[in-house]
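Page 37, top half.
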Amino acid sequence: MSNLHLVDGADLSLSGAVRMQEFTTGKEGATLGGIEIRFSSASGGLDAPKATLRRREGSGHVLVAELAGPGKLATGDNEFLAPASTVLEADTAYAVRVQGGGSGIAVRGTADDGETGEDGWSIGDDSLRGAVGASSHRTVSAALMIRVSEARAGRRSDPFQPPLPPNLTLSETRSDDGDWTVGWSGAEVGDFYSHVELRETSPGGAVSTTTYYAAPGSAAISGKTAPGAYSYRARGCRNICSGWSGSLTVTYAPNSRPAVGAISDLTVARGSTATRTTPPWRRSPCPARSWRCAGLPGARRPSR
C-alpha cells in the first residue's frame, strides 16, 4: 500500500517534532516487511531518525515494533525494516512514528487522496504532529508519503544493496503514427523497487527522464512528431538505484501516403436531370481511336 505516486506537497520538518502517519489494514492482515518514508531534506547524508510502528488504542498509540532504518539518509524514499514476524492484524489502525535525526531533516507530505493498496487498506488523509516528549498531537492537513510493504520470501535484508536493473520491452520497433508502449519487468520490480526511472533519447540527442511509481508497469508514449530513432533505458530505485538497463530503440517513420477512403462513382446534377459519370481513374486507360495508345486494339493514330 502506497501514496508515493501522488503529487508531492509541503515539507514537514522533524526539527523538535515527531510525525505520525496512520494507516488501516483491510479484511486480511499481513506480515510487515518494512515502511518507506519520503524525505525531502537529507542531501547531506544526515543521521537517520528513529521510526516505530504503533497501534492505535483509544485516543493514543501503543508501541508495536522498532523499525531498522538506514545509517544515513538520502533525499527521497528511505526504508525502515520491520523485525521478523511483525504481524499487522486485520481491520486495525496503525501508525508509523518518525522522530529525531538532527536539524534540517524534513519528511514530504501530500494533500492528494488516492493511495493504492489491497481491498480495505488505506492511508489517512491527514498526519499528526507533536513536540518531542509530549503526549498530545495536533492534526496536520497533509499525509506523510509512505509505502507499507508486506514481507516476502527472499526479501532483501539490506535496503542499501543496489537492486538489479529491470527488463525493458517495446510494443513495436517501428512506428508510423508516433505512438508506442515501453514496459518494464523483472524479479525485483514488484518486490523491491519503489519506482522506475525511464530515460528517453530523442533523434536530436535530447535526453529526458521520467519517474513512474508503478511496478510492474509500462509507459504509453504518444504524440511524437520528429522522425527518427527513439532509444530507451530504465533503472529501478528504492533507497538507491540500480544500473541502467540495456537500450531498446523505436524508429518513427511517419506514413506520408494520403489516407484513401472508399470513393464511389460521382453523380452530377444538371438542372433537373442527374447525370452519372465515371471517375477518370475507373475509365479505360486507352479510349478508342486515341493515338496515345497506338498499337492497342481499337486505337488509331489520327491522319496527318
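Page 37, bottom half:
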Amino acid sequence: MRIAEEGLLQEGRWPEGLTVLAAAAGVLVQVQFTLPVDEAAIRLNLADPLVAIASPVLLLILGLRHRRELLQLAGTPLILAVLAATAALTVSLLTGRAAIHEWQAWALIKYAGWFVLLGYALFGAMLSAAGGLLSQQAVTGGVIGLQLLLFPVFCISMGLWLLWPVQYGFRLQGLADNPNAMALLCLAGFSLAIGFHDQMVNRIGGFGAAAVTGALAAMVLLTRSIAGALALILLVFAVLLFRLLPLKPIVMAFVACMLLWFAPQRLQDDVANNVVVKTYMIVSESKHERAQGFLTGSRVGRLESYRLAFDQWLANPVFGAGLGAHMAAQPKSMSPDVMPVQVHNTPLWLAAEAGLFGLLSFTALFGVIAWRLGRTFLLQPPQFEGRAIVIAASLTLLSAVVAAMFHEMLYQRILWFMLGLALPYTLPAAWVGQSARKSAVSGSK
C-alpha cells in the first residue's frame, strides 16, 4: 500500500488542501453541544457537516484513483466486527420497538449516532490515507492548539456558561458540555502529544514539548473528572512501561503539569465561590442545599440506574431489553425525586439494551482494533511512518476504555476519529509498501 509521508494524493494542491482540512477537523471535532428533543437530547458537533461532506468526497476520489489500496484499508476481521455491531444495534432497536410499542427518541438517536461514529472513523481513515503524516500532524496541531488556546479559560472558569456547574458541584463544563467528555478530549490531546513528541521537539524544543505535554495533562485534572484522572494515571504508566518517551521529558512534563495545575485549580475554586455562587444565589435558594440536593439525587440516580440495567439484562440476557428501554423504564422504577440518567458504565449499558449479542459484538470490534494497533506497534521499528498516530490512537482507546467503566463513552466522536486516523497504518500491506519504498531509497543511494 503506497501511503507515504504525503499520503496517496500527492500531486497538485491536494497536500495543501488536505492539511487545511485536517487542521480544521482537529479544531471543530472538539466543539459540541446538546440539543433537547422531546424527552431526549441530540449531541451535535461542529465537525459534523465537515465529516458528512468530506468523507464521501475523499472516498470517491481515492476509490477512483487507488481502488486496490483502498480495499486493503479495512481488512476482513474489522469489516465483520463492524457488521456484527451494527446488527446487534439493529436487533436492539427492533426489540425495543416491539417491547414498548412505539419508537423511543433515545433509541432512534442512539441508532443513528452509531452511523455518525462510523462516519468519523471513515473520515479519519480517508484523511490519513489521502494526506499521510502531513494530515496527522495537522490534526495534532488543531487538537492541541485549541486546547492550549483555551487553557487560560480552564484556569479561571468552572463553566460560567449558564451557571449550571454550581448545581453540579463546581465541576468544569466545557466545549463537550460535560466534564467527562471534556476529559477524554484532553486525554486525546495528551495522547497526540506523546505520539508526536519527536516532531514537537523538532519544532519547539525539548522544554517546549514538555511544557505542552504537561499543560495537556493539567487540563485533564482541571476538568475534575475522576475517570479522566484515573485514565491519565494509566496512560503515564503505559508511557513508562513501553518506554514511549525517555525519562527526562517525562520528568519535565510531570513538573510542568504540577506547576500548571496547582494554582489554576485553587483559582477555579475562588472563582466558583466568589463569583459564580454569589451570582447564582441572587436567583436561587441556598447554594449548599441546592448543590448537595443535586449531587445526592445524581448519586442515587446512578445506583438505581445500575440496578435497573442489571435487572433488564437478567430478564433479557441474549438480545437485551432494546435500545431506549433503560431510559423509558427509569421514571417507572425510580423514586420521583431522582433524575433519570444513562447507565454510567458502557459494558453494562450494552448488556442491558443489546444483551450478550451486543456486548460480545462490541467487545470483538474493539478487540480487533486493539489487536491491529498493538501488532503494528510491536512489530514495526521506531522509524515506521505510522508509529506516532498508532501510539496516539492506542492511548486514546485506552483512555476511553478506562472512562467507559464509569461513564458512557462509546459515542465520543474524538475516539472514533483517532482510531480512523491510525487504521490505514495497521495492516501488513502498509508495512510492506513502506519497507519497499525505504529499500528503493537506500538502493538508489
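Margin note: DSSP finds 16 helices and two strands in the chain.
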